Amino acid sequence: MKTARYRAVEREFEHAERVMEKKHRVEVLRALLEMHQQQHEPDDEYIKSLRQRLKAAQKQLENMRPF
After folding, report:
1. Domain count, the chain
2. At what angle do helices 45-63 and 4-39 cross, to 10 degrees?
């Protein structure tokens, strides 16, 4: 039987995992953007989409409230 404390710890752990996953996504998008900016024109559509995705992921990470 799960206690209230156990459920709280479990939620906190799951939240920490989601935050780590989002941080990893931001890092990957940042690396992809840098790589493609070196290889292509800055107005390339793929680079524009990477910038948008990076900005969205950063905003989501920013909005993730700590427990």
Report:
1. 1
2. 160
Q: Whole-prediction pTM value?
A: 0.81
| Contact present, 64 and 18 (Cβ < 8 Å) | yes
Residue 33, C-beta contacts closer than 8 angstroms, at least 6 positions apart: 47, 50, 51, 54
**Dist. CA 18–CA 15, nearest whole Å:** 5
**Cα(31)–Cα(63) distance, integer angstroms:** 22
pLDDT in tens, 8-47: 999 999 999 999 999 999 999 999 999 999 987 777 899 9
Question: 1: which residues sit within 8 A by CB, 6+ positions away?
Answer: none
Write out the residue range of the structural domain in which residue 24 sits. Answer: 4-63
